[in-house]
Amino acid sequence: MLAPVVFCWKCDRHETIRALEERGIGFKSLQESIDTSTPGGRLVFHVFGALAEFERELIRERIRAGLAAARSRGRKGGRPRVMTPEKIEVARQMYESRKHTLAAVAETVGVSRATLYRCLRSSY
What we know:
Layout: E1 5-8, H1 14-22, E2 26-29, E3 34-35, H2 39-72, H3 85-97, H4 102-109, H5 113-123
Parallel strand pairs: 1-2
Antiparallel strand pairs: 2-3
Helix pairs in contact: 3-4, 4-5
């Protein structure tokens, strides 16, 4: 009796294919011409998997090197802060005067109320 086989257009999830293999289910990729129900197909599948893992490691190393180089030049990652020290001071003065609503303060400094709450909470 033939083992069941799953067909797909393109192979890009090696974990899924390994899980199928553990259950005795073959896999055939129409795009890459891989057939894991044969010894040669399993070899090609594992070679492709090893190459993909190697490429991921190279990318990871390049990213780490790029981030380290940027840090050494004084760059910091992440999103730029919306609340500058000047905006924080204006917001604090307006808030402490009790003459303005939080919505008005947030609109004046150009941020959301959530950002204003977060900023005011961290500055006290």
